[in-house]
Amino acid sequence: MRAAPPADSRLGALQRGRGAGARAVLADLEAGLEDVLTCVLDDPRIDRQVEARDDYYAALLVAAQVDPGPIAEHIRKFWDPRMRKAILAHLDAGGSGLDPSVRDALETLKKAA
Prior knowledge:
Largest sheet: none
Strand content: under 5%
Helix content: 55-70%
Number of domains: 2
Shape: globular
């Protein structure tokens, strides 16, 4: 298991769901987006069902108007085909509850398929 970054670093604060991480990203979007994408694409949580930072990360990505390509690529490479099929079916059914950045990533994924 790899060591977590220090809690007082931007990445460490983001991974721990701390507001200081979000404020640091919003203060310098260009520099902070890499850390947000790291959190999304290499989720540090052991059990995603215990807590949810998805909205926290998504809000930062939406604020930064991030390119959905890396998220779509992550879904294409690492998600089980049944999971991809299910989320795309959810999108086709209206996508209730999907954040705009997730919706954009799924649309990108759909176009590439």
